[in-house]
C-alpha cells in the first residue's frame, strides 16, 4: 500500500488520470444512486425533449432521460471492456507463455492459430462472428475476444523466449524445479507487468470496439442502455435532435481518452528507459 | 510530454467541434455535375440553381438494388429508376391508367383479356414495341420465374395463363388466364410485368446492365448496392427526356440523404426522416409526401400466447398509436387501426369502429377478467400458470425498430413482459413462426386493390403467406368469393368485409400507415412520390422553369 502511495506520489500523472478513471468507475458502480431517472422508464409523450433543468441531457425517442441512460451506459461499456481485456490477457497471455516455454508442436499450433486470426481485419472478423452468433452482450464479448487474445499471446511468448535461456532458468531446471514452478515463479511474473500495461492501454480501444459493434446492431440489445447503440438510435435524428448523439458520443470520447491517458502514463512510469530519464530529471543530473 | 498531450486533446476537441458545426448549414441549391465513370460519390454542387441548362441529375436514394426485371423485388428497381414501363400504370387514386397499352377489355368468359398497344413506341435499343415483343416479354418472365428453372415462382401468385397471342398488325396482345383475374389491369401494372425486349435481354448481363425497356433512362454502369449511372434514352416515345445523365447513389442513412440535399450534392433524396421535413420545407425544398398505401404492421402469431383472444385484445388496447406515430416516429407514420387505411373509403375503413382505442386501464381489466394476472408477485402476468413473455422480431427498416420498442414499453406497462429482438431480415422468423409479433412493411395495393395483401390471412393456397397462422372460416369464405368476383362494387363490399373481420379479430397489429416522401431542390420540378411507390425517376422530373 505504501509502495503504491509512493509510486503515485512520484508519478502524479498516473495519480490524476487514475483518479479520473476511478471517477468513471464510480459512476458505473453508483449509477442507481446518481441517475435521476430509471433509464428504462419511458414516457412516449415526452420524447425528444431538449436539454433542460428537468432532463439535463434531454430525452430520447422513447421519452427516456438521456442522462440516466448515459450514466447506466457506463456500466455496460466499462464492464464489457474490462471483462474483455481481462479475458484476452489471461487467455492470450497463458497461451503465449505455454507456446514460448513448451516450444515444438504446442508453439507451432498456438502461433499458427494466432497468425490465422491476425490475417483477418479484426473488426470485420468480429462482425462476422457476432453476425453468426446473433446479437447479444455475451456474443459481442466472444466476437471481440476471438480476435483480441492474439496480441497478448505474441507478447507473452516473446517475453518468455527472452528469459527462457537465462542462467537462472537453467539453474532452476538443473535443481529439479518443475515446469509449473518455473512458469508461476519466473515466467508469469516477468510477463505480467508488460501484459498489464498493454491491457490498460487496450481498454480504450476495446470500449470503441464494443461500441462499434453495438452501433452496428451486433451488441447489447435494446432497451439496455449502451453508448454505441444509443449513438445508432440517435443518428437518424442527428440533424433535428443532436443531443441524442452528442452525449453518448461525448461519454465514449471522455472515457476512451481517460483510459488512454492512464495507459500512457502507466507505460511511461514502468518503462525502465523513461524511469531513468525521470530519475535524472529529479536529481538534476544531465 | 504533458504539453504534447494537452495539445493533442485540444486538437481532437477542435476537430470534434468543427465536425459538429459542419452538420449545420443552410440550404444550397444544386448545381450541375457530370458523373465520372465508376466513381459516383455525389459531387458537391456549385451555387448555381438548377435551371433549364442543367443536364445532370443527382439522386440519393435508400437503395440501389440489382436491375433484374425477372425478380419480384428487383423489378421494382427497374421501374423506379426509369428503365422499364408497363402496359398499365396506376393513377394517384389507384385507378388503372393507359401506359404502353391504350386500352384493355375482358371477354364475357372473364378469362380472355385483350390489350391494345399504343402505336409508335420503341425500346431503348431502337426496336419497335410490337405485340410479339410484349408476348415474348411476358413469356420470358414466366420462364425465368418457373420453379422448374430455379425461379422463385412469385409470378404464379399474380396470374397463370393458358395462352398469349400477339397480333402485330392490330397491335393487340390477348392473354387467356387459367382462372378469372379480376385485377388483371393491376397485375399488368405491377413492376414484375413491366415490358422489356426479351431477345435483347438474353444478350445482356441483366444484373449489371439492366433490361432493355421503354423507360426514359438506360444504365451506363451499375455498382452493386452502391450506384447507378444512367443516361437519356434517345428513343424515348413519350416526349423529351429532360436530363442527359442521372447519378443515382445509394445512401442508406436518412440523415446523410438529408445532408446531401442541404449541401447541394443531391437534387433529389428519397425517404427523408419525417422529423427533418419541416426544416427542409422552411429551406424551400419541395416535399412530396404520401400516406396510406404502405402499412407498417405486425403479424401476430396465433400459435403462441397471442392466440389468446383476451391477451391479444388487451395488447391492441395498450398501444397508444397516436403517440407512437406522431411522437416516436416524428410523424413518419399516420396512426390507424384498420389494415386498409380509412382514406380508401371504398374498402370501408372509415366505417369501422375502433374497439381497441388506447386505454391502458381497459387493457388491464380485460386481462384481469380473463384471469391473466400476476399471481406470483414478480410484476408480470401469467397465462395458464406460465409467465407471459412476448417478443417483437423486427428489422430497423422505416423506423419499425423504434415502433417495436415503443410498443414493448406500452405492453410492459400493463404487466406483460415484452422484449424486442432486432434482426437484419425477419423472413426466417416469419416462415418458422419464431415470434409473437413480427414486423412487415408492405404496399397494400400492389395491384391496385388489396387482394394480394389480404391473402396473408387466408388459410388456403393464396398469393401471400399466412405468417400469423390465423384461421377463420368466415374470412376464408369471403376471401374465396373475392378471388373470383369480377364486379367492382361487389369486390369493394367483400374487401370491406375482410377489413372488418381482421380489425375486429385483432389480427393485424398496426404500427401505422407509412408516409413516404421524395424531396427535391427548389430548382427541380416534378419529383413526386405516387401512392403506389413504383414511379420515382420519370420523364416528368425536370429543371424548374
Quaternary arrangement of the chains shown? heterodimer
CATH class of chain A: Mainly Alpha
**Count of strand segments of chain B:** 23
- Total of DSSP H or I helical runs spanning 4+ residues of chain B: 16
Give a structural overview.
The complex is a heterodimer of chains A (286) and B (545). Chain A is 76% helix and 0% strand. Chain A has 286 residues and is mainly alpha-helical. Chain A has one domain: MetI-like fold. In chain A, α2 crosses α11 (243-270) and α9 (179-215) runs antiparallel to α11. The longest helix of chain A is centred in the N-terminal third of the chain and has 37 residues, at 66-102. Chain A is globular, with a radius of gyration of 23 Å. Chain A starts with a helix and ends with a helix. In chain B, β4 (101-106) and β5 (112-117) form a beta hairpin. Chain B contains 16 helices and 23 strands. With 545 residues, chain B is of the alpha+beta class. Residues 17-51 of chain B have low confidence and may be disordered. Chain A binds chain B through residues 13, 42, 44-45, 47-48, 61-63, 135, 217, 221-223, 233, 235-242, 246, 253, 257, 261, 264, 268, and chain B through 1-2, 5, 9, 12, 16, 20, 23, 253-255, 258-259, 273, 275-276, 279, 320, 323-324, 327-328, 330, 396, 399, 401-402, 405-406, 408-410, 419-422, 424.
Quick overview of this protein structure:
Chain A has a single domain, classed as MetI-like fold, CATH 1.10.3720.
Keywords:
heterodimer; A: 286 residues; mainly alpha; MetI-like fold; 76% helix; B: 545 residues; alpha+beta; 7-stranded mixed beta sheet; 6-stranded mixed beta sheet
Q: What secondary-structure arrangement, pairings included, does this model have?
A:
The complex is a heterodimer of chains A (286) and B (545).
Chain A: H1 2-10, H2 12-29, H3 31-34, H4 66-102, H5 104-118, H6 122-133, H7 137-164, H8 167-174, H9 179-215, H10 227-235, H11 243-270, H12 272-283
Chain B: H1 2-22, E1 56-61, H2 72-80, E2 88-90, E3 96-98, E4 101-106, E5 112-117, H3 131-145, E6 161-167, E7 172-177, H4 184-189, H5 198-202, H6 206-209, E8 217-223, E9 227-232, E10 245-250, H7 254-262, E11 268-270, H8 277-282, E12 286-290, E13 294-300, H9 309-318, H10 321-328, E14 333-334, H11 360-369, E15 382-383, E16 386-387, E17 389-394, H12 400-412, E18 417-422, H13 427-432, E19 437-443, H14 451-454, H15 473-484, H16 488-504, E20 508-514, E21 516-520, E22 524-525, E23 542-543
Parallel strand pairs in B: 1-10, 1-11, 17-18, 17-19
Antiparallel strand pairs in B: 2-3, 4-5, 5-7, 6-7, 8-9, 9-10, 11-21, 12-21, 13-19, 13-20, 14-20, 15-16, 22-23
Helix pairs in contact in B: 9-11, 15-16
